[in-house]
Amino acid sequence: MTSYIGRRVAYLIPIWLGITVLAFLISTLAPGDPARIYFQRTRGRQPSQQELQIVRDRFNLDEPVVEQYTTWLSGAVRGDLGVSFTTGRPVLDELLLRFPATLTLAFWATIVTVVIAIPIGILAAVKRNSVLDQVMRATSMLGASIPSFWLALLLIILFSVQLGWLPASGQQGWESLVLPALALGLGDAAVIARLTRSSLLEILNEDYVKTARAKGLSESRIMMRHILRNGMAAVVTQIGLAFGFLLAYSAIIEVIFVWPGIGRLAVDAIGQRDYTMIQGFVVFAGTIFVLINLVVDLLYMWLDPRVMLGRQRAVAT
Amino acid sequence: MLRHLVSDRTALAGLLLLILMFTAAAAAPLVAPRDPHEQDVANRYAPVSIEHPLGTDNLGRDELSRLIYGARVSLFTSLGVGVAILAIGMVVGSIAGFAGGILDGLLMRIVDVLLAFPSLLLALAITGMLGPGLLHLMIGMVAVWWTDYARMMRGLVLSMRERPFVESAQAVGLPGRLVAIRHVLPNIVGPVIVLGTLQTGRLLLALSALSFLGLGVQPPTAEWGAMLSEGQQYLASAPQLMVYPGIAITLAALGFNLLGDGLRDVLDPTMEN
Amino acid sequence: MTAFKRTWPQRLAALGLLGALLLSACSVGEGSDDESSESVEQKLVVGADEDGYTTEGAEADVGQYPLNVNIFESLVRMDENYEIEPSLATKWEFVAPNTWRFELREGVEFHDGTPFDAEAVKYSFDRVAKTGGGTPGFEKGGTKVVDDYTVEITPQFDNRRLLEQLVHPSYSIIAPDSNPGEEPIGTGPFSLVEYKRQQRIVVERYDGYWGEPAQLEEITFSFLPDPNARRLALEAGEVDLVLDVAREAIPDLESKGFLIAESQPGAYSAMYLNISGQKGYTILQDSNVRHAIGYAIDRETLIGGIFEGLATDEQTMVPSRLLGESGASEVEGFTYDQAEAERLLDESGWTMGSGGVREKDGEPLRLELINGFPSASDHGAVPEYIQGQLGDVGIEVEIVKTPDTASYEERLATGEGDIWMEQGSQNDANPLFLPALLFWSVGLFGDIGYQQLFAPGAEFDALIEDALASPDPEEVKQIVGDAMHVLIDQEAVVIPLAGLYRLNVLSDQVQGFQTHPSALQIQYNSVSMGAGDG
User: Fold this and answer.
1) Is C161 buried (19+), middle (13-18) or exposed (0-12) by CB count in 10 A?
2) Domain A92-263+284-316, CATH 1.20.1540.10 — does that match?
């Protein structure tokens, strides 16, 4: 078991390095002179040649690209992601400052998804092909087609502007959380509901369940003991992955709701060509992702050892 | 197969929806009632009328015409990106699958790195850095989304290589390429079509999101995501400006999803989500 | 199915993780801002535009510019009619040939207890001198302490307009040896509580204020760059006052019971045309083309439609109230005359090609319009409207949007663009302020970015210099009027679009708010929170 974990972790290191290369590459894409932009932004005017050179030296901009990368990387490994071009403050500080907000949002969005999707998915699987099932499938199809940011705007119009029940922006108290979490969570709910349904259907058809039925165990007993545990394995990992993806799609939602998370920070940084922030963000988010994937992998393995053992079909109990 | 498809009503609905939208988009100059750039500020936020079936926007331009021309950009850009990533992904995946060894390892590491990061944000970062403009947007999207095809292609190639008929063909001495074309490819077409359809729907949603954030087309070009962003500004005066483009996007995405689902049931029932 | 035995430690771990996540989620959700509920008395929340403070170097101006949060004060103030009033200075006189003597107010203290005196004034102006001297032209050593409460200022060039320039918050008085970038310490009715870059700046009442004490206990200025978010925040009650609202939102807000505070025109929307010919941007060097642009625009529809009637057809750039009647009458402005525009273009050899774009020698008449000052969202649909209008006479316009002010200014410094769309504000009482700042070849601040692209030349410069040296404020207005005539009518470097006035929107709980044509002069002393209608 530990060797499996060990192998997974070792595999991730080159991935992480790749992410850093990617982050660095992206920031080299932009036209314009980063030194000049930095000076303009922090000092409010154009620099003289000397002042420009000072900035260039400070950020090692005259070194060859590969050297710049290694310098930056050695810093990144130690947690020093440089300073933001926009605010002048350490990138990592800014990210850590805002990360809890995104985490909160993603967490509650996941709760929304789970609370809505799982029961519906289960019901749909149990009452297969019934009206409820059809309705659920139609709704989830629709849910997967609606742009989440449009949904967000519609929610704002309805609950904020028309009804005045909930705030449209900012982060003050739990009320601010409702609309963004809903906007973010509903979109995924569609997908998760379908997945729950299909996972459950798969299991309901498996041999050991049929055997259990044949033995005469009551439906609910079967449900509890076998179906939930096994089916949930796939669903739980999907939720874990969805949680990770929520961290990404929350960017647009954060922009619309003016939610102070890292997604909005990234969008602002991209708009402002804040090179160091963009680099730092890519590494930061990438690292989080990689960690989440690792956790999800391990979780799946824990819940369903068949994966590790090579997916052997379980013999009927 | 086609018969099966036709009998699946939802898939059929999706197909018809797409045909309708693509045709309208392609034939925009014929279908659209007016010039989408024609301003008539005195007549802004006009209600539904015969002259303006969906009213006018904040500069008095005909909303329906803008939606139709917007379809051109949104739909065909998604399609273009879809085809590009298909080509790139398949080439890379094939090379990885056939070549194996170090090259395979390297290519798959690159894929993993790209996949280790939320696609939309990556596309946003790349496009944002490149600057505004539709071409930059397409580059950014292509750079990010080719990975799914690469993986799939490689998987298929690998599994095909082990198949008995391939081995026997190779034993007989048929060249690799011939084996590929005659035997491997037909088995790939199905999954590719399914993935392609569903993927294009997702590309459309991503494209709209990125346009909504201001990347991609610049005024006065009409595009659904950009129109949504404009509509948001005029929320108070004319909320309908925000509703129409959203419906358009949803319907198009729905079309892709319905069709893709139906195709999946027919072509590749074993495929996981 | 024995593989499924879950051990207790595993279950506990899972629950623990879940619990920790929940707890963190709750605490983050609620532990933030307390400013939300309106039931708290005497606390005002203002929705402001993007955070434009400079925090580093001698240019640091937190609390001063572009958002004046009443931490600092200047020697003098200006009222709605651009008349000068005493503030930290009580008397002043001009001493030939180029010196200004001010008598300072006694008994004033900075927020940290330091007494306000001539040393503080010297420190403040020497600091400005370090970065070029500003529009008044402060010089190192040019500010002399005569005694504790008397100071003499000698600018580095002949400057008769110093008094009118001092009202600008960039020349406000800061505590000696302090740095606004680290800790803003002023003499104003409010003192700093906290500044969170790009989020908010919070100030509280300073009880030791020398003047009319404030009624509010605390003001929070939230930085909300997106005008939509600002408006939504207002409607949702998260902010009580918004300093700038998109004009198209006004009718709707009014119908919802919000109060609109309108000021006199104090700003303008205009296009500056790049006549430098640098980097291939040569088309606008032709005066005919420039004038054609002026005539091609239907301002009536622009003001009625795009600005929702909430602007004036003032084409003087500098607010006409400041120029005075005779000064303002020097500027003719442009009428809407498509035929004239087309005639001028034809005359210059630009013939209409297929596809509706004019051509000359195989080159299309294509112009780049840069949209981004103060920010692209401030201009709303205006650039697109212009694009349409110019397209009607055969000029193709490509709109380039810059993401924020800094990028716009950077682009300006490199001079890549033909048409530059800006909203300018008259922020002091000096009619010369904008023309000298932007179009005088010599330039101010040592930074000649604008001048390189737009300076109309010797005739204009001479007028500016005359006005700078003239002792008679009335004469100055006349001269500036003449200068604007050169700038606008003759050279068509500036194409005015509309005169703008402040539109502040407030909830009905906000009482005693007084607006001002220059947002930088807004005082919050008189503001208090009432019960409103709920």
Assistant:
1) buried
2) no
